[in-house]
Specification:
Layout: E1 4-9, H1 17-29, E2 34-38, H2 41-45, E3 52-54, H3 57-63, H4 86-90, E4 93-100, H5 102-117, E5 123-128, H6 146-167, E6 170-175, H7 182-190, E7 195-197, H8 209-225, E8 231-236, H9 245-249, H10 270-285, E9 291-296, H11 298-301, H12 307-325, E10 331-335, E11 341-344, H13 366-375, H14 384-387, H15 399-403
Parallel strand pairs: 1-2, 1-4, 4-5, 5-10, 6-8, 6-9, 7-8
Antiparallel strand pairs: 2-3, 10-11
Helix pairs in contact: 1-3, 1-12, 6-7, 8-10
Amino acid sequence: MKDTIAILCGGGPAPGINSVISSVAMAFLDSGYRVIGIHEGYKGLFSPEPDIQEIDFKFADDIHRRGGSALKMSRFKPQDSEFSTKFFVDFNVKLLVTIGGDDTASTANRIGKFLRENDISIQNIHVPKTIDNDLPLPDNTPTFGYQSAKQEGVRIAQTVYEDARTSGNWFVTAAMGREAGHLAFGIGAACHFPMIVIPEMFNKVEVTFDRIIKMIISAIVKRKILGIGYGVAIVSEGVFHFMSEDEINNSGIDFTYDEHGHPELGNVSKAHIFNILLQNRLKKLGLKVKSRPVELGYELRCVPPVAFDLMYCGLLGYGVKKLFDEGQTGCMVTASNAGKIAPLYLEDVSDASGKIMPRLVNIEGEKQKLVFEHGLQFIEPGDYEEAKAWIDKPEDYDFREILGW
């Protein structure tokens, strides 16, 4: 039986997954290996009858440019008691390639340890994936899928801005981002949105709905001073990660709750939440401004990868072969802008509990400072007198005062 390379995907989709699968397969097929894909991630891997995809050169060539994932994905996270050697023995697996986030990588390491304890020699190499761009890769290299998701986000966001101009409305847009605001910042800065709200901005004060809504109103009033009655504000969903549960529960939004009593944020559009709270505040202030919610999330995850990610994912796929030949295991593959392949070990980027520390937007970075200083529109002391035509206390809506900057 041929030595086999097995590939699986965990978590949610990101543009470029197929490009990674294709590149890994081509590199190993060229060296005489059998390459198989496993549908449904770890759930499929330890299923009594795993759903296997035989990957030949034609299959790999066909999927390279496509969005989504040719291998069905799953968030299933097996317990140690569910591990089995059967699949690896039956298929003579020499390398397990996992594509996913930190949970997928951590599980792969646990499996590798289990197999070694059962006298099965196998390498495991992880390809880090997320559109959130929040993994601490060397030299600030982006995570694959981020550039493609951002590009699609910009395309949609520009259309939303045109709708705002055409209809004379405001739009409140929410962008994906588990903890970090990279996607919201990238989209908002590219589109010159008058207001961008990301969790990293709250480095001196607590994240509250009141502050977020005041920042959006600050932009609305500033635009009125400038003679513009429309606009778009973009907020990263990552702000919820830093809010207290009391803050969320007391927002006035009707949430469903899980068995532990926690609000199920995944059941509600984040843009809808911000828009409802904005409308309530505008009504109290007597400001006649129409606003509409737009969510930027699932629309971004399965688009075809742009040129950057096509090339980048190709390098990551070839990099898996390079690290395999070097005997590396229990690591993530990284590729620099110059194409240098290097392993990144979880222990080098994890805290004491084993959690990978997220890469947040560098709020003190030169790019970020330039955007916040010159790319946004908001009330500052010089606007107070003119702003009184719309709000009684303009100082309460001073952007820098709200953030304690």
